[in-house]
Input
Amino acid sequence: MGLPCYSLCQMDVDYCCAWALADIGAHAVELRLDDLIFDTDDIKYFFAGCGNCPVVATYRIKDPSEADHLDLGDDDAEPDCTEVDMAVRMLSAAIIAGADYIDVDMDFPRNELLWLEQLALNYGCKVILSHHNPYGTESTQALQAIASRIFSMGADIAKIVTTAHHPDEAARVLALYDSFPPEHLIAFAMGREGEQSRYEAFHRGAPLMYAAPRRRLPTAEGQPLFFDFLPAEDTRCWGDVEPPCAKSIAIRAIVAAALTSGETVLENITPSEDISAAMDVARQLFAEVKYSRRTKELTVIGHQDIAKYGLMVKDDRLDVGCSGLLCRICIPLAALCRNVVTIEGHGAIASHKFNVRCPELTRHGVNVDFTAGHLPATVQGPFKGGTYNISSPASAHFLTGLMMALPLAGAGEITLKISEASCLKHIQVTADVVRRFGIKYEDVLSEEAGSVVYKFSSDGRRYLPSRFDIEGDWSAAALWLTLGAIAGESGVENMRGGSLQEENYILDVFETAGADIERYTDPEMEYLGDSVGYYSAFRSLMAAFECDITDCPDLLGPILLLALRSEGVSRILGIKALRGGEKLYVKEFLRLGADITVEGDSLLVRGSFGNTLRGGKVSSHGDHHLAMALLAAGKICDGKVLLDDAACIDRSWPEFPLK
Output
């Protein structure tokens, strides 16, 4: 019986090594040296560490007879190096380094082919000579003649690949197995009509069956996928979900709607505890709030006239529930009120220790007094004009609220200068929301200085009613797609690839690790121009990776899970952005049997394709992101995961399927 052979292209050498070394059953790999990010040193490095996995080294050239000159961008390459020269160089390096097979076109220039065949003979490497017809299928007689010619040229294996436009053409290719030794023949047809011929050739005794590592990287039409060779337990379908609305955007939009004088309609609102808390804040700002579960539309009718009366707050109190984001919004907003406002909270936010200095607020006339560093806090304005400098984590704590409040301050020219690196991407979400409510500003990005400056225009200092759709939440989508990549198959609907949410960074991490994630865009949504569509994840063989979660700490759970099932040691940078929360993740994942080491501002996570945790009793510590990550981790555990508190998940995703 032959082996599945995974054709590797458009990858670096470390990812190729992961495929060779992975414990995924008996298999071979094909190095498409014409389409890999390789040089001859990489070839030596690969074969030094590829273990006992059989390796086919292949180099396809467009037209050997033309011998086009290459601009290689390589200091070591001769200036007149042709594609044939490069093929000989790369294949020779592979033979000497230990390739089990080389695959060369039968029409390769004769002298160079004889050289490669002799070198292969000297190093115990077998030669595959190939014939490819991308347009059709020759007659039975012609196919027989091609196979005979290939064997007469000294090939150990004849590879004959045609393109079938009718089942009869695929059958003609397969008939070669009746005339030649199956163990020395790889014969099948490409194209839709030839897909089954690949499997039939394998069952008839072909030594190799070529397959793509993931959907985006086939080297030929009709290739089966790595996913197709996996056992049933690795291909469980977890289903498709529509993640809840982006909570961070929805909360900003609900509060902004309450600052208007008129009716705002927010579409695609999905209820959660934090969304409900934002609705309550809107009511405390004298807004009328109505939600339709049938249409998922939230109507907010604002009654504010801040320029005339200041911010009107019921009983001069704002209750932010358990939401840290609401708290960071409401403290600066409260300074717009002409009375002293008390900010209250519950749950984890009530025990949160705040930086009591609030430097930029204090410097501009806003007095914030916490109770021994905790809520409740009192806020008294008004704001003063001038420049607000956000240059440190301490000054950035209430940046979102500042961005929403300063356009309404009525304190002359106001400039918001942000140079704290962790805020530069984060603030774009807030800027986009206030823009949707009619706030005009001038923004200047200085990449050299690493800062962005917002200047609020005097004729745009009023929130106007609006109507828009709240996009899906990428932190939720990230976890669900990760579940598919590590444990089967999953999908998420109605997600924007071009989102400003920091958490869509997960798409970069998926790509770096080599996860099989595919996007299918809805043609009816193309007018939005930002890749709204369906994302699908398949169980993937991934390589160790490095990423930085400074701007997106909520991704720690999904990225930990990815790392635990990636080959090698992954490094997750920027964990201090969790302000101590990373210790809880490490503690609970260690309880499950994960191999995690803390090293400064990073986590080192050792994983493998088949890595299985043991399960056990764990705690969410009231963190909804951690709770969901632990429940997802249960799908790669031998034992059960017993979570002490899943109720906290209701803060963001009450309908979480694994709860």
